[in-house]
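Hey, quick one: can you model this chain's 3D structure?
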Amino acid sequence: MSLRLFPFAAAMLLAGQAASAETGRAEYVFSSDLAGQGYEPFAASGSANASFGMKRDAEMYLCFIADDLVSSAERQKVLVAEINGKSPDRVVPNIPVVCVLTQ
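Sure thing. Here's the predicted structure for all 103 residues.
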């Protein structure tokens, strides 16, 4: 094999091994927990429908909204009432954001 082709061939072999590796499993984490551990947010550009990502060193998580219809409707009702000047209470359910480890 030509010495000029060796780096290309080696890269192709390594890429094949990486592609065939099994993906692992990990528990999801709330974004607030990651922030408390020093992770920094980054833009995910809609990767896998993620809202954003969290990163610390080489470890990255993609983060997703994990909302339910009842909580969303309650927030909307309170916010519309606020816009109309009729909101008796400003307390609304939090929007849960869960993050999944990437590999």
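One thing worth noting: Strands lie at 29-30, 40-42, 52-56, 59-65, 97-101.
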